[in-house]
Amino acid sequence: MASIFRQRYTVKDQNGKRVRKHSKCWYVDFKAADGTRKRIKGFQDKAATAQLAARLEREAERELAGLGDKYKEDRKRPLLQHLNDFRESLANKGTTEKQAQQVYNRTAAILKGCGFVFMADIQASRIQQYIAERRKEGLSIRSSNFYLQAIKQFCRWLVADQRAAENPIEYLKGQTVVDERKRRALTLDEISCLLDATAKGSKHHSLTAKVRYMLYLLALNTGFRASELASLTWQSLDLDTSEPTITIKAGYTKNRKEATMPLKQDVAGLFRQWQTDSNRKPTDKVFCRI
Question: Angle, to 10 degrees, between the axis of helix 97-114 and the axis of helix 79-92?
Answer without folding.
Answer: 160
